[in-house]
Amino acid sequence: xxxxxxxxxxxxxxxxxxxxxxxxxxxxxxxxxxxxxxxxxxxxxxxxxxxxxxxxxxxxxxxxxxxxxxxxxxxxxxxxxxxxxxxxxxxxxxxxxxxxxxxxxxxxxxxxxxxxxxxxxxxxxxxxxxxxxxxxxxxxxxxxxxxxxxxxxxxxxxxxxxxxxxxxxxxxxxxxxxxxxxxxxxxxxxxxxxxxxxxxxxxxxxxxxxxxxxxxxxxxxxxxxxxxxxxxxxxxxxxxxxxxxxxxxxxxxxxxxxxxxxxxxxxxxxxxxxxxxxxxxxxxxxxxxxxxxxxxxxxxxxxxxxxxxxxxxxxxxxxxxxxxxxxxxxxxxxxxxxxxxxxxxxxxxxxxxxxxxxxxxxxxxxxxxxxxxxxxxxxxxxxxxxxxxxxxxxxxxxxxxxxxxxxxxxxxxxxxxxxxxxxxxxxxxxxxxxxxxxxxxxxxxxxxxxxxxxxxxxxxxxxxxxxxxxxxxxxxxxxxxxxxxxxxxxxxxxxxxxxxxxxxxxxxxxxxxxxxxxxxxxxxx
Length: 525
Known about the structure:
The chain is mostly helical. It is built from 20 helices and six strands. The protein has helices at 4-21, 25-45, 48-81, 84-118, 125-154, 173-177, 180-211, 215-250, 252-259, 293-299, 309-334, 340-349, 353-357, 371-380, 385-414, 422-430, 434-448, 461-464, 470-501, 512-524; strands at 159-162, 167-170, 271-278, 283-290, 453-455, 459-460. The chain has a two-stranded antiparallel ribbon. A two-stranded antiparallel ribbon has the order 3-4. Strands 5-6 form a two-stranded antiparallel ribbon. Helix 3 (48-81) packs antiparallel against helix 19 and helix 15 (385-414) packs antiparallel against helix 17 (434-448). The longest helix is centred in the middle third of the chain and has 36 residues, at 215-250. The radius of gyration is 26 Å and the shape is globular.
């Protein structure tokens, strides 16, 4: 029997590593493009202040980039140490985009980061600008290939099971590359990163405006961040809607869990704005619903039903029965059967092979599976609803909150009123953690909602784990927690320290006269 504690600890360790790692990634994605925009303005205008903006925000980008790289390397190793059967079963497919990411994007990004920092006096303006844009594109290309790999875990297209090697094999690289789930995840994730970078710049600029220091620098940074952030937030919301449509099409269980849809809803399906899902009685208590909205999100129509958890359980039960039969036929072929009828029957039901593997959580004897064990597997095929339900609403709610912040900031910039509303600057400053919370909530929806699958409908997570001991896992969990917490403290210390020093630290006294002039102008206004 499978050691559930080992599996849970392995999942916890990987989730811990991923959540820590993704504290750094969104800021890298967002700041890299903001730096490229700022430097483009510098090259076009020739104004020194924009060069100083690139150098100052670039210093904070460098701190974050270094810690993002160091925390990400551990995740690569965990596929071999903690998820060895996962690596064996799907390594030929999953490893391809990760290898391309390393060769095509990460090496490009990491090499050019050095040129970005040390090439100011060695490269022409145009060449250094090209380096900055390539750093931005490199960071986004890294995200692309990683999310192609993750998208395949959600929607495993372009692959087939080979019963002779007992592995999944890639048969269509184009399908892997253009997987609709991967493409939607990519644009949604990088847009969330752009929001994070914009909020970071906007919040620190607001701090300078509140303190009445580095005003010329802060106002220009505020202006760029507000425009970039508004565009990014609109993109996140629109692409999030597209992501919802793709989930409704290929991940119906996740969609039902997100909406806590226990019963199949006839068209037009209502959207549950808020409520309290109770999985024991399969009911959402105190639910407040928006008529017809879920039909638009999940099916792009008002005349299609949205499948509920009740009907999905019925479908999963039949697929589990088919999967048990597929596993029995597979064992016959592995034992040397050459009967063509056995192979023909296997081809008919091999698509449900993964569902049969769910039963292995409850029994090792696939030839004598009981009805109660099938019932257990059916319940196991549905993730816990409440964490997904609330995480989704936190993500969406914070997304619309950021839209209001960026829209108001953009309006102030357009009316040339930046810094005149102190209470609004304080709201922005205290909103600094918001995009990180939204990003982590989004990953909670994406990954927890995929359970119980390591690879959607192919490999259950319980079979993907390595045969480690609980002691080994606790040792590494404690070690990773201590090390990554130290990294996080170091990042926050350095970020706060250099932010407090401000851009004046680049050129002592340069902004003193500008600050005085700005203050006089503000008083005149």
